[in-house]
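can u do me a favor
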């Protein structure tokens, strides 16, 4: 393309996702497909979970074009942010938040408290004895204030707690050290500390299989009880790690309605659809995936309480589902394939 024409092209900035994306910074073969985010701009932001090393790659260009929200897949987990008491490592999280700022994207914070990613030092005194309930709560408050305080005004929604419900656990709660050491009120304290640290952030309780009736009943009761105590629970994060069969679209629709009746927002927080669970992905399964994603988006859009939809990854090139799979047997759960090209699922969703 002649330099002069290129300069003219470069000056045309397309306003996508509320930010000026200079056309020539997004490769034409990406920009030729309608932006997912712009397609849904009137309904809800479209997000993706990211790692910092993806941002300055072609995956980052796909992200900037098709998504207007990001979630730190791992960088904001407590064990990664504060691996040693008092020593915070914000570099990876800052890179993600800074990228989002440059591209006019929202940021979902994930997560202030998760039993799986709580560093061991939380549970020990300096002399090695078990930490007291008061010490653990003090450490939680320090962590939440340091993190939610740092990103105040730049992270619009937090997964304050992650995966705290278990239908077979004591009082419907997962039997973790948080429950054993602090008691069930650890959840309320996490929300109160988050509210103290960032009064404007939307505060979510995030979990998986929220459509499963027994677990859903537990979650509904927990959210209702917390809100009745005045705990600032603004919404529920429905992770939605699903497959071609379950949950049914009807169950998703029912679940979103039940939580909306509590007066809370619904965020779809970690959407992906495994198609390799019990057979190799092929054209037929990709078409079924496309139809199922389209049906799900119809349901999401039918509920005003759904105020965000985020995928757990940018493309099939990087998905947690393949962490333990062999290269010959990879899953393909997202809308873009391992070469970052749009799949039938992408075309089905942008038609809705
Ligand atoms: O970065 C290190 C690397 O340096 C090291 O060589 C490698 C081998 O040990 O580990 C790498 O860290 C891994 C990290 O993912 C980045 O790939 C961790 O071991 C691994 O445990 C971590 O797994 C993450 C998992 O949560 C546990 O935190 C997945 O990427 C992430 O997708 C997954 O996401 C969770 C959500 O946070 C909560 N909902 C469920 C979802 C799926 O499990």
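np, heres the sequence
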């Amino acid at each position: 393309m002649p330099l002069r024409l290129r300069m003219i092209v470069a000056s045309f900035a397309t306003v996508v996702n509320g930010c000026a994306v200079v056309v020539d910074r997004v490769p034409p073969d990406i920009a030729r497909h309608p932006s997912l985010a712009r397609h849904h701009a009137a309904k809800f932001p479209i997000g993706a979970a990211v790692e910092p090393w993806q941002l300055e790659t072609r995956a980052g260009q796909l992200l900037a074009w098709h998504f207007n929200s990001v979630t730190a897949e791992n960088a904001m987990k407590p064990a990664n942010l504060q691996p040693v008491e008092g020593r915070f490592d914000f570099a990876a999280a800052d890179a993600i938040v800074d990228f989002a700022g440059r591209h006019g994207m929202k940021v979902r914070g994930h997560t202030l408290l998760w039993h799986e990613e709580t560093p061991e030092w939380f549970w020990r005194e300096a002399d090695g004895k078990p930490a007291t309930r008061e010490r653990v709560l003090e450490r939680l408050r320090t962590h939440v204030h340091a993190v939610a305080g740092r990103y105040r005004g730049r992270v619009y929604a937090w997964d304050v707690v992650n995966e705290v419900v278990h239908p077979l656990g004591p009082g419907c709660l997962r039997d973790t050290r948080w429950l054993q050491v602090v008691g069930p009120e650890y959840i309320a304290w996490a929300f109160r500390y988050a509210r103290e640290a960032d009064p404007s952030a939307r505060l979510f309780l995030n979990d998986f299989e929220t459509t499963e009736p027994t677990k859903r009943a537990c979650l509904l009761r927990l959210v209702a009880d917390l809100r009745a105590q005045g705990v600032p629970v603004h919404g529920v994060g429905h992770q939605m790690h699903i497959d071609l069969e379950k949950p049914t679209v009807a169950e998703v629709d029912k679940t979103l309605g039940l939580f909306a009746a509590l007066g809370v927002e619904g965020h779809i927080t970690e959407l992906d659809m495994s198609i390799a669970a019990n057979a190799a992905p092929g054209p037929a399964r990709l078409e079924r995936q496309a139809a199922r994603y389209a049906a799900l988006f119809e349901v999401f859009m039918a509920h005003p309480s759904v105020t965000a939809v985020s995928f757990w990854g940018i493309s099939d090139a990087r998905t947690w589902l393949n962490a333990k799979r062999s290269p010959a047997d990879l899953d393909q759960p997202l809308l873009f394939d391992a070469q970052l090209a749009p799949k039938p699922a992408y075309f089905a969703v942008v038609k809705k």
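DSSP finds 13 helices and eleven strands in the chain. hope that helps!!
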